[in-house]
């Protein structure tokens, strides 16, 4: 089976054809277990009249199991009818005897025929014991959930009587319940021994239905012990028995467990195929447990898809399952879907959403009062805190989970898997604290435990991190062996996530031991695996999140090329690691290495591209001209650079404009604030510009391609001395990716048309004046002013082919879920909170959402001007940039976006933008040069002003132009 081509179809068929129609009623096990008393409560398509019809015409239905059940029921019903009467028992079974012979001949199954002969030959004394057997079996079945000891007594009584009258079939039925009881009484050895005896007896008697279920029950015990190979062997044999019986419930249950076992063992193809086959049998079922079993299938399928790296599809499956889980009373299912969603979001680096999902699951599980399930959630929450670099909080939850686990009396051995997880992540905690001895201790415990239960994922990860510990301790031979072994195990496991990690860390070993050729080979393999995993995602947000998780691989490869002086390759992989979603929507762009080498030739003599790459320990600056590529590497850790930029942004008032504005009222304070901003700007200049100054001699245009927090920085405001800002010497614009901007030139479109939207909130009077003034430059213009706009009309106008769209109103930025950032069109009509799951739906709420904008067709739009509050803000994703409203317009197809980095006074913004449009449209300058001259005018006006006196960076540098 080709997984990549079939999985989406299979589970969508499942969702559409099956889940939407299944019943949600829950019936207790005692009501569906077969018994004499309960026979009338079990719905059967075959009534007595049909049995008579079949016996007369000699016709047998194709579904073997349904006929088996119908004949079996009829036998027991007639036993109860005969009890206490003097008529011949043999005569009562004439139809059953005839059909059981047909059944024997047609299906080669003698079990029913033996049962009919046995029952028809019972004398009154034996019949009385047989009735007691049925009653005891029924009572045992009724009590098996709530009173296992009482159930055990009933089954043992039934077995004694069954032995006395030679009732082999019902004796096997009773024995089939005992392993379950022993398992839940924590008597595993007895459970296994009884199950093996039962399997042998059922197989000898050709009672394949019970043999299959016995193997299924035995698998549950082996699962608790982590003995997956034994479980797999019994499932294969159980499947053979189940297929001979033809019960879709039994077959689907075994296929589901095969999928679960294969996934645990790392055999993902087998797991996927098992779930796909299970799907077909689930659709044929009509029993009351079909919804619960379907939810188990979705949970298992989502885990396989996640392990295959198909995160988008895993998310769809989990969301569908979460929706359906609300139809049943068992809240454990709902908590499991929340938990798995939390794990998935953590895998793709959406940590805030992950924590939200996990806390929902935790809340549900605390109400269930199952200590293991509670410990499981405490551990999962701890891992998310660890991923968020909140390591002390992580350790708190790891210890909490371990303590909760220690208090569990029942099923002590079932927790080995969770214990292995906890040990591994405690090892991670100590590794981040550079306590390598303690880290090694916990990794070793984790690996040993994982190996004992065939927990391949943690076995591999623990091996990798033991290798990392050995590298840190300079035990290189040990590191090589550990990492090589882990890579081999990862190849067998086939999880692309684990495989990429294994290749990456072995590559780091060779990089550390100065074997660059081998290191390059392994790091490139890790990147190729990451690219393949990314390519199969069909959810854009998951693409972005996943790519953020693999940036360290790119960073190490770039550093490797820098060390060996391969600047073109270093620059290429720096480019390949950014703005990939934007590149996805432009498939015509060649992102090959040869194309990137030619980019410099398309620049004029006055232009250079400056691209930054931030790694954990270094800042790498690439400078590309039409003649060459240069780089400068500085040993500046990411956290130090981040601190400098945050201090600068604070000094210029970008974080709290209202407080900043109040401080400016005092002349002395204003002067000090201005000086502080200049000092911070000079400090950043010394890091970001001064090391490449000699490469900028004779240049006039700087095209910045930032990375990380540099996306928030107005490079125009950096300065070498107290009087000259960078913008005063250079024209500046920004590029998400050099691939996207290979031909930089003066850009003046013909036949300009203008769409202006302003003051939709009703509290920005200057914005209406601004838009009206600008619109006069254009003959073809359409204005939407004030707070009574209709969202559907706004959607239409944005896609109506206007060359220039100017938005002058508020923007509300959601930095946690950036696609929920929006521009208010009018007073909101709905207070409904939109979740991450609703990104695919357009919602009429008078909010122009980022995820709605992304779906627009704006390929003919030359410029979108966002004269809004913090229009360029959003959430930063490594490998993509800042995702929010500005990015949404770029994805929609806008060729350029003029946007704001922070909240600005609408008066200053209006003045600056009117100057910009006059420079651009009337004076035919490039957009970047037009913005530069407008900013210079504001700077000079501020210096000449008797009121302002200082060209505060806050008032003029917020606007930046991004060209794609």
Write up this protein.
The chain has 964 residues and is of the alpha/beta class. Among the domains are: 1-26 and 252-327; 330-405, Tetratricopeptide repeat domain (Serine Threonine Protein Phosphatase 5, Tetratricopeptide repeat); 411-514, Tetratricopeptide repeat domain (Serine Threonine Protein Phosphatase 5, Tetratricopeptide repeat); 516-596, no CATH class; 598-731, Nucleotidyltransferase, domain 5 (2-Layer Sandwich); 753-925, Rossmann fold. The chain is built from 43 helices and 15 strands. Strands 7-6-8-11-14-15 form a six-stranded mixed sheet, sandwiched between helices. Strands 3-2-1-4-5 form a five-stranded mixed sheet. Strand 6 (753-758), helix 37 and strand 7 (780-785) form a beta-alpha-beta unit. It is elongated, with a radius of gyration of 35 Å.
Summarize the structure.
By secondary structure, the protein is an alpha/beta fold.
Strand order of the largest sheet: 7-6-8-11-14-15
The amount of helix comes to 55-70%
What is the radius of gyration computed over CA atoms, rounded to a whole number of angstroms?
Answer: 35 Å
Low-confidence stretches: 1-61
Please outline the major beta sheet.
6 strands, mixed
Number of strands: 15
Q: Give the averaged pLDDT, no decimals.
A: 83
Task: Detail the topology: elements first, then pairings.
Blueprint: H1 3-18, H2 29-32, H3 48-57, H4 64-82, H5 89-92, H6 94-107, H7 111-120, H8 124-143, H9 148-165, H10 168-175, H11 178-184, H12 188-204, H13 208-225, H14 228-245, H15 248-264, H16 268-283, H17 290-307, H18 311-325, H19 331-347, H20 351-368, H21 371-387, H22 391-406, H23 416-432, H24 436-452, H25 456-472, H26 476-493, H27 496-512, H28 516-535, H29 540-549, H30 551-563, H31 567-576, H32 580-584, H33 593-597, E1 607-614, E2 619-624, E3 629-634, H34 638-651, H35 657-663, H36 667-688, E4 701-705, E5 731-734, E6 753-758, H37 765-775, E7 780-785, H38 791-798, E8 804-808, E9 822-824, E10 847-849, H39 850-853, E11 863-866, E12 875-877, E13 881-883, H40 885-892, E14 896-900, H41 906-922, H42 927-944, H43 953-956, E15 959-963
Parallel strand pairs: 1-4, 4-5, 6-7, 6-8, 8-11, 11-14
Antiparallel strand pairs: 1-2, 2-3, 9-10, 12-13, 14-15
């Amino acid at each position: 089976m080709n997984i990549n081509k079939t999985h989406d179809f299979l589970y969508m068929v499942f969702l559409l054809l099956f889940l939407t129609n299944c019943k949600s009623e829950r019936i207790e096990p005692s009501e569906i277990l077969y018994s004499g008393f309960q026979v009338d409560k079990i719905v059967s398509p075959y009534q007595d009249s049909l049995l008579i019809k079949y016996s007369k015409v000699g016709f047998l239905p194709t579904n073997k199991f349904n006929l088996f059940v119908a004949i079996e029921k009829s036998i027991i019903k007639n036993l109860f009818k005969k009890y206490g009467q003097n008529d011949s028992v043999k005569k009562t079974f004439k139809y059953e005897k005839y059909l059981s012979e047909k059944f024997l001949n047609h299906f080669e199954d003698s079990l029913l025929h033996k049962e009919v002969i046995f029952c028809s030959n019972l004398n009154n004394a034996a019949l009385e014991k047989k009735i007691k057997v049925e009653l005891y079996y029924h009572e045992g079945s009724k009590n098996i959930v709530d009173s296992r000891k009482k159930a055990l007594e009933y089954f043992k009584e039934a077995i004694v009587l069954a032995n006395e009258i030679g009732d082999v079939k019902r004796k096997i039925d009773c024995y089939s319940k005992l392993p379950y009881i022993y398992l839940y009484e924590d008597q595993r050895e007895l459970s296994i021994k009884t199950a093996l005896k039962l399997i042998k007896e059922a197989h000898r008697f050709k009672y394949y239905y019970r043999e299959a279920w016995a193997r299924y029950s035995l698998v549950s015990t082996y699962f608790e012990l982590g003995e997956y190979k034994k479980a797999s062997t019994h499932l294969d044999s159980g499947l053979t028995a189940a297929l001979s019986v033809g019960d879709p419930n039994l077959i689907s249950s075994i296929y589901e467990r095969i999928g679960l076992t294969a996934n645990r063992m790392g055999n993902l193809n087998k797991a996927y195929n098992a779930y796909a086959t299970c799907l077909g049998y689930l659709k044929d079922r009509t029993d009351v447990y079909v919804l619960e079993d379907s939810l188990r299938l979705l949970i298992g399928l989502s885990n396989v898809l996640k392990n295959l790296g198909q995160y988008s599809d895993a998310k769809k499956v989990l969301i569908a399952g979460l929706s359906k889980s609300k139809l049943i009373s068992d809240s454990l299912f709902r908590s499991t879907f929340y938990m798995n969603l939390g794990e998935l979001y953590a895998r793709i680096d959406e940590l805030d959403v992950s924590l939200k999902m996990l806390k929902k699951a935790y809340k549900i599980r605390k109400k269930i009062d199952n200590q293991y399930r509670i410990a499981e959630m405490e551990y999962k929450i701890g891992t998310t805190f660890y991923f968020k670099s909140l390591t002390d909080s992580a350790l708190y939850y790891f210890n909490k989970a371990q303590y909760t686990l220690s208090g569990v009396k029942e099923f002590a051995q079932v927790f080995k898997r969770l214990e292995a997880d906890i040990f591994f992540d405690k090892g991670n905690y100590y590794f981040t604290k550079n306590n390598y001895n303690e880290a090694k201790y916990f990794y070793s415990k984790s690996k040993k435990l994982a190996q004992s239960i065939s927990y391949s994922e943690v076995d591999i990860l623990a091996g990798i991190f033991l290798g990392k510990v050995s590298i840190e301790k300079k035990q290189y031979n040990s590191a090589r062996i550990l990492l090589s072994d882990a890579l081999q195990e990862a190849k067998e496991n086939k999880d692309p996530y684990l495989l990429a990690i294994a290749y990456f860390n072995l590559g780091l070993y060779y990089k550390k031991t100065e074997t660059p050729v081998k290191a390059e080979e392994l790091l490139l393999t890790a990147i190729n695996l990451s690219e393949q995993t990314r390519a199969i995602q069909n959810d854009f947000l998951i693409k972005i999140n996943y790519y953020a998780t693999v940036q360290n691989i790119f960073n190490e490869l770039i550093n490797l090329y820098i060390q060996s002086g391969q600047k073109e390759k270093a620059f290429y992989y720096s480019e390949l690691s950014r703005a990939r979603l934007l590149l996805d929507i432009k498939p015509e762009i060649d992102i090959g290495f040869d194309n990137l080498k030619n980019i410099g030739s398309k620049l004029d003599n006055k232009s250079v591209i400056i691209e930054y790459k931030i790694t954990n320990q270094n800042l790498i600056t690439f400078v590309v001209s039409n003649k060459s590529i240069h780089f400068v590497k500085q040993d500046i850790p990411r956290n130090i650079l981040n601190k400098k930029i945050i201090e600068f942004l604070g000094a210029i008032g970008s974080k709290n404009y209202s407080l900043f504005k109040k401080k400016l009222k005092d002349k002395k304070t204003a002067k000090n604030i201005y000086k502080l901003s200049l000092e911070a700007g000079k400090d950043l200049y010394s890091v970001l510009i001064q090391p490449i100054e000699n490469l900028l001699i004779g240049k006039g245009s700087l095209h910045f391609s930032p990375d990380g927090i540099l996306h928030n920085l107005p490079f125009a405001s950096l300065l070498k001395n107290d009087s000259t800002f960078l913008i005063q010497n250079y024209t500046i614009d920004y590029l998400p990716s050099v691939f996207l901007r290979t031909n930089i030139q003066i850009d003046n479109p013909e036949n300009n048309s203008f769409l202006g939207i302003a003051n939709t909130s009703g509290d920005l009077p200057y914005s209406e004046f601004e838009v009206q003034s600008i619109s006069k430059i254009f003959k073809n213009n359409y204005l939407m002013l004030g707070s009574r706009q209709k969202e559907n009309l706004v959607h239409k106008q944005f896609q109506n082919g206007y060359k220039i769209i100017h938005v002058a109103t508020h923007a509300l930025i959601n930095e946690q879920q950036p696609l929920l950032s929006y521009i208010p069109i009018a007073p909101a009509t709905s207070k409904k909170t939109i979740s991450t799951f609703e990104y695919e739906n357009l919602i009429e709420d008078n909010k122009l959402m980022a995820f709605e904008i992304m779906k627009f067709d704006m390929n003919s739009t030359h410029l979108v001007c966002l004269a809004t509050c913090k229009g360029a803000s959003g959430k930063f994703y490594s490998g993509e940039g800042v995702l929010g409203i500005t990015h949404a317009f770029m994805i929609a197809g806008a060729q350029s976006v003029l946007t704001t980095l922070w909240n600005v006074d609408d008066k200053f913004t209006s003045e600056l933008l009117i100057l910009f449009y006059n420079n651009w449209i009337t004076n035919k300058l490039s957009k970047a040069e037009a913005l530069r001259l407008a900013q210079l005018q504001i700077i000079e006006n501020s210096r000449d002003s008797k009121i302002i006196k200082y060209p505060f960076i806050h008032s003029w540098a917020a606007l930046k132009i991004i060209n794609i």
